Amino acid sequence: MRRIVINGANGYVASNFINELLKYDYEIIALVRGNEKYSAKQKMYDALTELNEKEFTGDEKLQVYSYSLNDENFALKRDELSEIFSVDVDYFHFAATLKYDHKSKGEIFTTNLKGVENSLTIFSKNSSSLSRFFFISTAYSCGKIDGVFKEKFYDNEDISSFRNYYELSKRYAENIVRKFIEEKGVQAYILRLSQVVGRKEDGVTKTDYGIFDFSKRIFNIASRYPNRTVRVRVDTKGTQNLIPVDTTVFYLKKTLESDNVPVILNFNSKKSTENRVIIETINELLPVNIVPDKDIKDEEMDSVERLIAIGMSFTGGYIDTNLKFETTERDKIIPTNGYEISDEAVNKMIRYFIKTLDHDKKVAAK
Fold first, then answer.
1. What residues contact residue 52 under an 8 Å CB cut-off, 6+ apart?
2. At how many degrees (to 10) do helices 211-224 and 343-365 cross?
3. Contacts of 35 (CB under 8 A, 6+ apart)
4. Which residue of 140, 201, 247, 274 sits 20 to 30 Å from the alpha carbon of 343, by its own alpha carbon?
5. Are 324 and 253 in contact (CB under 8 A)?
6. Interior CA angle at 358 toward 354 and 363, to 5°?
7. Residue 84 near residue 127, CB atoms below 8 Å
8. HSE-up of residue 87 (Cα within 13 Å, Cβ side)
9. By the 8 A CB rule, do 309 and 233 touch?
């Protein structure tokens, strides 16, 4: 039974990954930050309960440890750390903050840089020579690249080459991994995920990130100001690179099963989703008329439109992107036919998400 160690294990993608691994012959160690009011074990169990829509009461293949990402030895006891690394492991580093603004720069660097370096240090000191370290990065470590983002390392650049500090931190973290590979001989790999959305098969969506954050903001506007026409600063010809969470989990599992993993893999969709599809779907589902106007200026907006624009401080950086990603290395080990995103799948996801918002609103009103 192969041992899989996962930090940040109660996060969206990580918990979906664990949920899938529990179906197979893997021993899973989940590292979760707990506290006196909300234990690591309960956080993990709650995440799995949410995914399955029924109470998760435990599984003998899953062990949960409370850890602290930036502390020496993760603040684990010596015997706990020894036990975790007592056999060959595949270690997945999911832990990250999704904050992005300048005000959060210190927290971003502490979590997304110092945390990665601490994980690699602990891994390199305690793991066997056959153990592997997988760093979950983002396809958006590409920054404002002109051209195709290849499956290779890129040198660090200053903030002007990125849309935000989250992107920058992931590029810098990749180069920390690179240093451990080159200087310490660590078997480490970088898996770059694009925007992870709901499940392709049934549309079930348990995240409010990215296009769903936008959908939520429009839902709230439509609820307060029904049948309004609102202009939003969006380029309909721009695209979003979306990867379903079940596809992501499939890719992760295939990577885990491979004995010859390329150092860097881009986990993204080969066909991006046009902003037009997202806007048309929301207009279909809500009593609102979104009119995309990529050139609209702040002073031309009314109060409702300005409210939407302020809420798009993060997503607004991606409304006019048409990013291209190489997948040559990924295609060597992972079959992708049948797992790509489709406009129909995006429609199902947004439909599910808005239905959930409507249900929650009605429950809160009672």
1. 19
2. 50
3. none
4. 140
5. no
6. 145
7. no
8. 10
9. yes
Q: Is 136 exposed, middle or buried (0-12, 13-18, 19+ CB in 10 A)?
A: buried
Question: Length of the chain in residues, anyone?
Answer: 366
Q: Domain 2-196+242-267: what homologous superfamily?
A: NAD(P)-binding Rossmann-like Domain (3.40.50.720)
Q: Are strands 264-267 and 188-193 parallel, antiparallel or unpaired?
A: parallel
Q: Domain ranges in the chain?
A: 2-196+242-267, 199-240+272-322+341-365
C-beta separation of 163 from 180 below 8 A: no
pLDDT digits (tens, 9 = 90+) for 64-115: 999 999 999 999 999 999 999 999 999 999 999 998 888 999 999 999 999 9
| Residue at token pair 């150092």 | 263
94 vs 31: CA distance, rounded Å:
10
Cβ partners under 8 Å of residue 76, min gap 6:
65, 67, 84
Q: What are phi and psi of 69, to 5 degrees?
A: -55, -40
Residue type, 233: R
pTM: 0.95
Token look-up 């998400």 returns: 353
Distance CA(176)–CA(158), nearest Å, equals 16
Instruction: State the Rg of the chain over Cα.
Output: 21
**Nearest CA-CA partner of 270 in 335, 326, 349:** 326
Over the stretch 231-244, which tens digit does the pLDDT of each residue have?
Answer: 999 998 899 999 99
